[in-house]
């Protein structure tokens, strides 16, 4: 899917912030390779919120910090309660890498592999420690969510009732 698809679903309300430039991506790629559809989205829209509910992080902002915090929190819980975790943490093989969150505290993550463009999206519901998996990448997840083709179990029922905004 092209970013234009997302463009048609979101109304930008403010100027974008924390939008990486090509030069920024060179520096970022030295630290970590990220999916190209995410790079395109963040380069165009920056960090922000969809419908005051889903926050998308930028590597120029809190992306790497939040991922570290997620790893720390989940690693501690996984050590205490290994039977309730059904996912690994980045940089483990197939590890969860956070790129966003909901206002309910649900981390939005990629399940990583060798090819960032093959990373799939998951949600770690704040009231459970099981990964809700979606067999699609970042952009397809957002477009499918906003088109109501997917409805995550942990999202409120009225989340998708309005015109979608990004701010």
Quick tags:
six-stranded antiparallel sheet, 167 residues, SMI1/KNR4-like, alpha+beta, 5 helices, 8 strands, 19% strand, two-stranded parallel ribbon
Task: Please provide a written account of the structure.
- Helices cover 32% and strands 19% of the residues.
- It starts with a helix and ends with a strand.
- The chain is an alpha+beta fold.
- The strands form two sheets. The protein has a six-stranded antiparallel beta sheet, with helices on one face. It has a two-stranded parallel sheet with strand order 1-8.
- α1 runs parallel beside α5 (138-146).
- The chain has five helices and eight strands; from the N terminus they run αβααββαββββαβ.
- It has one domain (21-150): 3-Layer(aba) Sandwich (SMI1/KNR4-like).
- A hairpin with an 8-residue loop joins β5 (107-111) and β6 (120-123).
Layout: helices, strands, pairs:
Layout: H1 3-9, E1 10-12, H2 22-31, H3 36-45, E2 48-50, E3 54-56, H4 63-80, E4 96-102, E5 107-111, E6 120-123, E7 132-134, H5 138-146, E8 164-166
Parallel strand pairs: 1-8
Antiparallel strand pairs: 2-3, 3-4, 4-5, 5-6, 6-7
What is the arithmetic mean of pLDDT? 87
Number of strands: 8
CATH class: Alpha Beta
Rg of Cα set: 15 Å
Low-confidence stretches: none
The structural domain count equals 1
The first-to-last residue Cα distance is: 22 Å
Beta-strand content estimate? 15-25%
Broad structural category:
alpha+beta
Spatial sequence of strands, sheet with the most strands: 2-3-4-5-6-7
Shape: globular
Number of helices: 5
Sequence of secondary-structure elements:
HEHHEEHEEEEHE
Name the helicity range: 25-40%
Tell me the major beta sheet: 6 strands, antiparallel
Classify the fold: give the CATH topology.
SMI1/KNR4-like
| CATH architecture classification | 3-Layer(aba) Sandwich
